[in-house]
Amino acid sequence: MPRLTERTAEERRRRILDAAVECFATRGLHATTMADICRTAKLSPGAVYCWYAGKEEIVEAVARERHERERNLLESALGSADPSTGLRAFLDTYFEWLADPQEQQRRRVGVQVWAESLVNERFRPSVDEGIGQRALALDAIRAAQSEGIITGAADADGITRLILAIIQGLILQQAWEPDLDIESYRRAANLVVGALTGGDAPAK
Hints:
This protein is mainly alpha-helical. It has helices at residues 6-27, 34-41, 45-49, 55-78, 83-98, 101-117, 124-132, 134-146, 156-176, 182-197.
């Protein structure tokens, strides 16, 4: 069998992951079979299994991609000279990301994985990896507090968890309400950031 080019191999991997997300989002993690994924991807079982041994590996691959993008967004925000501007930019970019219908579908799968990880140890490391990125923000919040840029009226851990809750809360609500007004949510989130940093939310 001829060896796939790097581009063709990547396109095939993308087809598998996109097909799996579609199946998981519409049928659920447990109801979806590898046969469903093969059929949706329009690939033979051999073509799919040479990439992933089963559903669990596919779920983990989808999560890794999301975590990498989240980490890049967070690191970019933390690199800002002004923590307030960086935080707002991070939330704005994140909410724009969640406005993408394909990303909304992936997040529906993420919500299922969150729930499954409570009883399935296989998925717990993947969920912990995403939550663990909070440590990056925690260090930045502490530094900003020490410089008087962010209020010290609440401890850094509480502020970091609040920001994480804003993001996770939108994801959960959006799973139930796909037509949720993200722009309204973004404006409210900026008010919270303004309160934390002692500045007013930008008018948009």
